[in-house]
Amino acid sequence: MFILAWGGFVCMSLRLGRPSDLHDLEEIERSSFEKGRFPRSLLATMLDSGDFLTLVDEEDVVVGYVSVYLEGPAKARLVSIAVLPEWRGKGAARLLMEGAEEASREREISLMGLEVGIRNVVALRLYLSQGFGIKGLIKDYYGKGKDAFYMEKALTSGKGAGARPRDGKHDRLAALPDDDR
Ligand SMILES: CC(C)(COP(=O)(O)OP(=O)(O)OC[C@H]1O[C@@H](n2cnc3c(N)ncnc32)[C@H](O)[C@@H]1OP(=O)(O)O)[C@@H](O)C(=O)NCCC(=O)NCCS
């Protein structure tokens, strides 16, 4: 696939995250979040679990990721999405969201949910533009005074069966202290 960058098109690919992406993912976390970054150990565990879909450049450097895990037999949760600052505003997040949705549909997921900080206008606009709707407000979700919207999207071609949740991983993001996502 191609993406418009610096006035020209560059070749990009979506692929599953690999253990060797750990350093690149840490760099994206560092440059994207002031607080509540995923620690290295958690990133490694999530990579092992196949939770990351990454967007890589021609040299296989990860420029953005989306992490999704199964929350129930037919439901997925989008845990996080981030793009390197120099790659933002070029459609990278849209590609990642579309890839995550397609992969979820293939696993017969019919509903995707996520939380987003109410002050994260860019992410909110991204999710709204991808067809997610606001279903509720979660007070203090990211810490005291840091509320989140809960959003959902129906993935229309999902059949609602077949995928199994991974036990014990449902509240990873919520468990992080003082998260500002
Ligand atoms: C949110 C984020 C992933 C968007 O990545 P991106 O690659 O720049 O997004 P895209 O270029 O694909 O834009 C997709 C949509 O996002 C929204 N968007 C992107 N940049 C925006 C901006 N500066 N202002 C307002 N809306 C914006 C728009 O709706 C846009 O669609 P449009 O181009 O049709 O208007 C990126 O800004 C980021 O990494 N932020 C820090 C991490 C974060 O907050 N993650 C979300 C919470 S987990």
So what's the CATH class? Alpha Beta
Main sheet record: 7 strands, mixed
Name the assembly state: single chain
Please tell me the total number of domains: 1
CATH-derived topology: Aminopeptidase
Number of DSSP strand runs:
9
Order of strands in the sheet with the most strands?
A: 3-4-5-6-7-9-8
Q: Helix coverage percent of residues?
A: 25-40%
The helix count comes to 5
Computed over alpha carbons, the radius of gyration is 16 Å
Distance between the termini: 28 Å
**Beta fraction of the residues?**
25-35%
Shape assignment: globular
Within CATH, the superfamily carries the name Gcn5-related N-acetyltransferase (GNAT)
CATH architecture: 3-Layer(aba) Sandwich
Question: Which ligands, by name, code or SMILES, are bound?
Answer: coenzyme A
Strand and helix map with partners:
Layout: E1 2-5, E2 8-11, E3 13-16, H1 22-32, H2 40-48, E4 52-56, E5 62-72, E6 75-83, H3 92-106, E7 111-117, H4 121-129, E8 133-138, E9 148-154, H5 172-175
Parallel strand pairs: 6-7
Antiparallel strand pairs: 1-2, 3-4, 4-5, 5-6, 7-9, 8-9
The structure holds coenzyme A (COA).
Could you give a short description of this structure?
Helices cover 27% and strands 31% of the residues. Residues 158-178 have low confidence and may be disordered. It contains 5 helices and 9 strands; from the N terminus they run βββααβββαβαββα.
What does this protein look like?
The chain has helices at residues 22-32, 40-48, 92-106, 121-129, 172-175; strands at residues 2-5, 8-11, 13-16, 52-56, 62-72, 75-83, 111-117, 133-138, 148-154. The protein is α+β, with helices and mostly antiparallel strands. The chain has one domain (7-158): 3-Layer(aba) Sandwich (Aminopeptidase). The strands form 2 sheets. It has a 7-stranded mixed β-sheet. A two-stranded antiparallel sheet has the order 1-2. Residues 158-178 have low confidence and may be disordered. Residues 32, 80-83, 88-94, 116, 120, 122-123, 125-126, 129, 181 line the site of coenzyme A (COA). The site of coenzyme A (COA) has 20 residues, from strand 6, helix 3 and helix 4.
